[in-house]
């Protein structure tokens, strides 16, 4: 028989809800699910592993790893719905188990194993596949867990696997396990350091006294797993014993560090250890992506929940959570944050003050929680850099090593964040814009076709080339949708507007989002290149794009008028986050607002044309910028995500809520729009 998983009991706080398999979500991301708590209050569950995947249309769907029939030759079953696919044979001897992730794949076969599998949900069980050994394969969110269940002391303790990989992949050691990396050394698959545990009560005794070794050959790579005979032969063993090798898909951000093994990585392994063994300390590292929670929301409460699988002693122990203050990777060790470069201090760089502490930790097979609410609020609003957290015993002199379940496997860690939406209600952004009388206003909310509707009913246009409608809105709370442009052929166009011609006073306003490190058009309404002072183009730039030796040359925004240009540097606008921009012209005065601020910049009226070239005024100009000549903008159709300037790409990203005004918006009006688009009211 197989040992039973520990029961889902709870201690020190509420436990983890079941991962829902239906569509009853307010919103989702790869690693989070958000549920309505009533009114403006939401609860977001954030995991270090995946809980959703994108389907063929790009929509987030709940992962369903139930095993279903497959049409792939030589295989009988596959997991139903995930970003990776595992293929299983009906008989474990008939074909190797196959994992496919994008264009990459890996196969492995347990040498000598044979027998048919029986299915239950995401699990296939091959009973008696080897003498005295049952093989259990479980498709999980970011991993394929293979359990070798040894029924008694006579079962074998050494196992051989044959691995094959797609072209370009390479196996390399990673701590006590292996990573499979591509040509850019990005981890595609991993073989986690195995662990074994017996069937004793309260989670059983655990040991990591196993070794993995690899030997390349003509038929692939042979991997040998050896379990420690002394541990297996201990009279205290409760049989059956499970050996738990796991194949990781992608890169999961959880690790533990051990002072006794300062150069060894224990990342994406079988446990997250924290505590002290009488000689050396262990500390756990975790990181959660909180991008699903709007930065303007207020965190009401935040709980970190960890499931305690085992403990080295029965001593009640305190553990504290601290803010990490340095980036790290899954190659981290006690000495280094990435396998190469040293932490400032061994054991990790973290704040000296605990964000939360939980006392009395001892009972295994239950959940424990911490409440680092202030830390999570800082992560959400951006006032604290989210490098993750470390879990450690405050004094590191209490003899008890606590082993929590990791991101892979059952009962993984998660954050439960209860947050309150900002004061604005859906639709209030549109109301704020309409109150200031735009002459044209494109919501970009269409779900089909190529027509781009003007909410004012006077200047509807069309989408051209490569575009995708009905994308997530760039305003918060989300209202309507946005359009995504492909960066090569996609843009939108509308007929010329009088407000944007000659020297007429005007404002243009839009929201955009891009991470493409290229110069890209946001908006254009003027003449083609070469017509002095007749261009009117707004462009987003990466670093080192501007020639003519400007005082600085960083990412920013660029206003091109041909003959007179303005460069606003030092703006992190290619960061993949949503941004609000307003450009205004009144006579020979130019204002530019970005995310509610008025950045300074540099001006040229000496050759500011053609590939961002000019003789730049080395004075850093506060706003507004005064032009030397009043523009005379040419009468041409409006282009959104495209333009007429030289050496600039089409927008590769999203655009939303584009408006044109025949007035120069006041600072108060711009601030009202910025706040309404972020769910904030006065």
CATH class of the largest domain: Mainly Beta
Number of distinct helices:
4
Which architecture of the largest domain per CATH?
Sandwich
Uncertain residue ranges? 1-25
Q: Describe it for me?
A:
The chain contains four helices and 53 strands. The protein is mostly beta strands and 682 residues long. The chain has three domains: 195 residues, no CATH class; 157 residues, no CATH class; 245 residues, Jelly Rolls, CATH 2.60.120. Strands 12, 13, 14, 15, 17, 18, 19, 20, 21, 24 and 25 form an eleven-stranded antiparallel beta sheet that branches. Strands 1, 2, 3, 4, 28, 30, 33, 35 and 36 form a nine-stranded mixed beta sheet that branches. A hairpin with a 5-residue loop joins strand 5 and strand 6. The N terminus is likely disordered.
């Amino acid at each position: 028989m197989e040992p039973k998983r520990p029961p889902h009991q709870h201690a020190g706080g509420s436990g983890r809800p079941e991962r829902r398999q239906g569509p009853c979500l307010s919103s989702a991301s790869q690693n989070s699910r958000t549920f309505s708590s009533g009114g403006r209050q939401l609860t977001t569950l954030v995991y270090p592993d995946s809980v959703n995947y994108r389907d063929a249309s790009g929509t987030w769907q709940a992962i369903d790893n139930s095993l279903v029939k497959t049409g792939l030759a030589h295989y009988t079953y596959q997991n139903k719905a995930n970003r990776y696919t595992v293929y299983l044979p009906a008989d474990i001897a008939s074909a190797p188990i196959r994992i496919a992730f994008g264009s990459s794949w890996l196969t492995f076969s347990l040498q000598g194993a044979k027998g048919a599998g029986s299915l239950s949900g995401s699990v296939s069980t091959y009973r008696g596949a080897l003498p005295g050994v049952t093989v259990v394969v479980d498709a999980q969110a970011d991993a394929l867990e293979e359990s070798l269940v040894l029924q008694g002391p006579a079962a074998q303790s050494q196992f051989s696997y044959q691995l094959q990989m797609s072209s370009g992949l390479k196996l390399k050691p990673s701590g006590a396990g292996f990573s499979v990396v591509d040509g850019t050394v990005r981890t595609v698959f991993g073989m986690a350091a195995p662990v074994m545990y017996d069937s004793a009560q309260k989670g059983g005794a655990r040991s990591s006294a196993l070794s993995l070794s690899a030997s390349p050959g003509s038929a692939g790579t042979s991997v040998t797993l050896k379990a420690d005979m002394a541990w297996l032969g201990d009279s205290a063993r409760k049989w059956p014993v499970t050996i738990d090798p796991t194949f990781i898909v992608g890169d999961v951000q959880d690790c533990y560090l051990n002072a006794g093994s300062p150069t060894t990585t224990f990342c994406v392994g079988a446990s997250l250890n924290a505590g002290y063994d009488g000689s050396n300390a262990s500390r756990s590292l975790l990181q959660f992506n909180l991008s699903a929670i709007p930065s303007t929301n207020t965190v009401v409460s935040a709980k970190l929940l960890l499931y305690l699988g085992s403990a080295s002693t029965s001593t009640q122990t305190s553990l504290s959570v601290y803010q990490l203050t340095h980036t790290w990777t899954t190659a981290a060790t006690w000495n280094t944050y990435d396998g190469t470069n040293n932490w400032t201090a061994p054991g990790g760089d973290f704040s000296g003050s605990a964000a939360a502490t939980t006392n009395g930790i001892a009972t295994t097979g239950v959940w424990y929680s911490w409440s680092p609410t202030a830390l999570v609020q800082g992560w959400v609003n951006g006032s604290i850099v989210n490098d993750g957290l470390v879990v450690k015993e405050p004094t590191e002199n209490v003899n008890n090593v606590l082993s929590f379940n990791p991101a892979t496997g059952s009962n993984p860690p998660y954050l439960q964040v209860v947050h309150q939406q900002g004061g604005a209600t859906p639709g209030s952004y549109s109301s704020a814009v309409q109150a200031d009388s735009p002459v044209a206003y494109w919501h970009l909310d269409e779900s089909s076709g190529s027509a781009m509707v003007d909410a004012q009913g006077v200047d509807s246009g069309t989408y051209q080339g490569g575009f995708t409608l009905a994308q997530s809105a760039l305003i918060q709370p989300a209202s309507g949708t946005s359009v995504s442009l492909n960066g090569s052929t996609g843009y939108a166009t509308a007929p010329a507007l009088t407000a944007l011609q000659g020297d007429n006073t005007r404002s243009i306003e839009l929201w955009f989002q891009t991470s493409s490190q290229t110069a890209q058009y946001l908006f254009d309404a003027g003449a083609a290149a070469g017509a002095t002072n007749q261009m009117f183009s707004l462009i987003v730039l990466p670093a080192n794009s501007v020639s003519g030796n400007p005082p600085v040359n960083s990412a920013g925004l660029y206003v091109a008028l041909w003959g007179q240009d303005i460069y606003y540097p030092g703006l992190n606008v290619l960061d993949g986050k949503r941004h609000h921009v307003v450009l205004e012209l009144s006579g020979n005065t130019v204002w530019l607002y970005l995310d509610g601020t008025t950045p300074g910049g540099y001006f040229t009226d000496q050759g500011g044309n053609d590939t961002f070239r000019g003789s730049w005024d080395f004075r850093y100009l506060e706003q507004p910028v005064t032009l030397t000549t009043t523009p005379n903008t040419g009468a041409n159709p409006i282009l959104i995500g495209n333009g007429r300037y030289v050496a600039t790409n089409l927008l590769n990203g999203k655009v939303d809520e584009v408006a044109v005004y025949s007035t120069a918006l006041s600072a108060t009006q711009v601030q009202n729009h910025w706040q309404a688009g972020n769910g904030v009211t006065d």
